[in-house]
Amino acid sequence: MSSVRVGFGKVAITPPLGISLAGFGARTSPARGVHDDLFTRAVVLDDGRTRSGLLVCDLCEIDAAFVAAVRDRVETAVGIAPDQLIVAATHTHAAPATFPLYSEPPDPRWLRGLADRVAGAVVAAVEDAGPATLSFGSGREETVARNRRRPDGPVDPTVSVVRADRSAGPAVLLVHYACHPTVLGPDNLLISRDFVGFAVDAVERATGGRAAFVNGACGDVNVGHSADRSALGLPLPGRTFERAEALGLRIAAAAVRASQDTRLLAPAAGKHATALAAARRAINVPLRATPPAAAARAHVEKRRQDLRRATAAGADPDVIAGAQLEVLYAEMALRWAEERPAAETERAEIQALAIGDLALVALPGEFFAESGLRLKAMSPFPQTLVVGYAGGGIGYVPPREAFAEGGYETRLAHWSRVAPETESLVLAAAAGLLEDLKRRQDAV
What we know:
- It is a single chain.
- The protein is an alpha/beta fold.
- The chain has ten helices and 19 strands.
- The longest helix is centred in the C-terminal third of the chain and has 23 residues, at 317-339.
């Protein structure tokens, strides 16, 4: 696949101190320092007919408005159409989001400047592009990711690497793994990429190349702690930079091994060997009905009474913690009931990029590990990477069965609002988009 050109761009996007970090309801103070800088990293592919790109930001999440602003700037600057550019976040919880997510609303001036800098990484990647040979490798890392809902729950331990060896300049590597970057907890007030930064930096040191981390479907996958305890800010062992480094190095080691045992991407069936193709599709997904505000307020008061009774009775600490969680969830549901517009659906964007027998399929929000595994099995491409936190955010998208089980990810709130049928609708649309890309690719 030597006829493809690949370029890499990297731009620092570290925000100013005092910004509100996203991802933890228990965090009460803004950022007070910088442990390690945040970046946006772009990889551009050009087969002579089509130019496409992947842009990954060290942010907690990105919304559709920000993605649209970045795409507009990129199209103006280098002519890459919106359909051809995947924009995603790594999902570190030691960084801001582009919308309120357990955080204060971002400064609009910061967002405008951020969109300019993020787009600049794509411009740099276009200028850097040169002939390359693409290959793919994978390995396993089974000691980092844990299903946070149940001990025997599914995870995807695969560490995948897409490698571009160029005739001039260092290699470019995409490292893909599905796990929440939440080693650092709500007590951390330092800006950081979490384990992602340690993993990417180690891969670059070991290979001499330039790397980007792409997160997968990890809505129910953490680094060994529960979502409920994280949301409440209860003490958890090992939430340190030392542990973030240790876990990042484990992922890096698997990625380096995979990068040393790659195979060339097989050409598509069409006449044009690389057959680069990209497309996106938007669907309207159903939302759950919110309760009347009066009923939601009454529910909050009931949960507060339960907490007061448990505290007064000297109940077991775990019982009190459970009651505190119920108050937190009730308050979140009330806030959503009061603030959300009277909407029954929400727009969800699915996007895919394919080259040879490899496809990246980007989903908007937090999909469970089992959803990612199922989508890979549905794909017509032998190698399929599910990209999470891309194209905007629709919150948690649990499988239908998860709603009956309950848990943090299914609680009605601004971060969990879709109806139980949404997951199957999105996966079906994504599989259909991949089928369309395969047909288009083979017809070139």
